[in-house]
Amino acid sequence: MNAETFKQIFTSEDSTDKENIDNVLSIIEDVKQNKDEALKKYTAQFDGRELDNFKVPVEKLKNSFDNLSEEEKNALVLIKKRIADYQQSIKYKDFEDREFSYVYHPLERIGIYIPGGTALYPSSVLMSAVPAAVAGVENIVAVTPTFDDENITFAALYIADVTEVYTVGGAQAVAALAYGTETIAKVDKIVGPGNRYVALAKKQVFGDVGIDMIAGPSEILLYVDNSADYTAVAYDIFAQAEHDVNARTFLMAESQDVIDGIQLEVDRLIDSQRRADVIQKSLENNHYQIIDNRKELIDVINFIAPEHVSIQHRDEQEISRDIRYAGAVFIGKYSPEAIGDYAAGPSHVLPTNQTGRFSHGLNVNDFLTSHAVINLKEGTYSNIAGAAKTIAKKEGLDAHYESLNIRMEQ
Ligand SMILES: NC(=O)c1ccc[n+]([C@@H]2O[C@H](COP(=O)([O-])OP(=O)(O)OC[C@H]3O[C@@H](n4cnc5c(N)ncnc54)[C@H](O)[C@@H]3O)[C@@H](O)[C@H]2O)c1
Ligand SMILES: [Zn+2]
């Protein structure tokens, strides 16, 4: 049992979905050319809505918030504060020295995609918009295919310091953010999760505009021993599975007894789940493995770089310290992944499908850009200009050489 065993799982997936790519490319081209007209056309085609005006007035957002129960309002406010405090604490700070500085500035205008095709995601609003607001972004534009006059997504947008909201979704919304239309001005970066069309569109527009990452179907790797609460672990597996039929769980334990114990709870409880049909389907993607060697376990985790890792084990602290690549690591009984979805603080917008090996969860620093400031004094210059001249000469760049040399002679 080692990381090699998992290669098969990851290489056999259809990451290149030719038909959908062509479809998304033609939507993007159309929006580039025909702007608002194209947005209206695709909104009618895919969402079945005739839209004259897709800008949502702030009163609509406010109404949605005002009409929530006190309990719901308080929940959104508390979650917003948790996210903001956490993001503030990890925000990069300028480095300033006599001859070098490194300074950070917020992006000017960003777009957040809030999924809304089949479910509402007020948590995603807060997880994307609050980090941007903490970074100091002035123009936070949200797009979402959410059309009801009042809904919890609008309520979250109301308290999240979002400055503009448009009811467009899918690849057409991503294209509008990337290239601009008569109604929606172009942004500098697009963030947030969405379905495959949204993900493919983000991939296509990258380069013309920044993106955060390509987040695919959700996944969790659980490492559990017999000190864990098997019923709670069964619910952790359901929580992952109910997201989407493509979601998956990697359940790992040192012995078959543990896996059997959890499986018993899964079998006992599954029929009583409201989303049992989705759960049942996504459980087919699960992989249950016995790993009794700690080094192999860590190799597998680092290879998969799971979106979520949950360790519920006697040695959970020690094991967690060796993990290098993961979207987020949840340690122990009181850090279930579900608390991370809503309220722990770090964003739930996380890299999936091994992309955690080179990218990270959305955070405040994704909304900052930075540059170096070089302000050398004469002494430093004289110490290093000789080396620079030598290389400039070797490269045959004479003007570079002279630019350096002339200052040495003075
Ligand atoms: N990783 C995360 O943090 C996270 C959080 C929340 C949601 N999600 C994911 O976001 C996704 C939400 O998907 P959704 O579909 O509900 O909403 P969505 O808003 O992502 O997509 C809806 C849009 O898809 C477009 N579309 C639908 N069918 C199309 C077709 N045949 N061709 C072209 N475009 C088409 C439509 O324009 C529609 O507006 C889910 O996969 C969910 O798991 C992820
Ligand atoms: Zn979840």
UniProtKB/TrEMBL annotation:
Active site (UniProt): 307-308
Family matches, as InterPro entries: Ald_DH/histidinol_DH, Histidinol_DH_monofunct, Hstdl_DH
Entry keywords, A to Z: Metal-binding, NAD, Oxidoreductase, Zinc
Cofactor(s) required for function per UniProt: Zn(2+)
Protein residues bound to NAD(+): 113, 172, 195
Domain of life from the UniProt record: Bacteria
GO cellular-component term (any): cytosol
A GO biological-process term: L-histidine biosynthetic process
Taxonomic source organism: Jeotgalicoccus halotolerans
Protein name in UniProt: Histidinol dehydrogenase
NCBIfam families linked to this entry: hisD
Tagged with keyword Repressor: no
Binding site for Zn(2+): 240, 243, 341, 400
An example Gene Ontology molecular-function term: histidinol dehydrogenase activity
Binding note for cofactor: Binds 1 zinc ion per subunit.
A Pfam family matched in the record: Histidinol_dh
Membership in a protein family: Belongs to the histidinol dehydrogenase family.
Transmembrane segments: none
Binding positions for substrate per the UniProt entry: 218, 240, 243, 308, 341, 395, 400
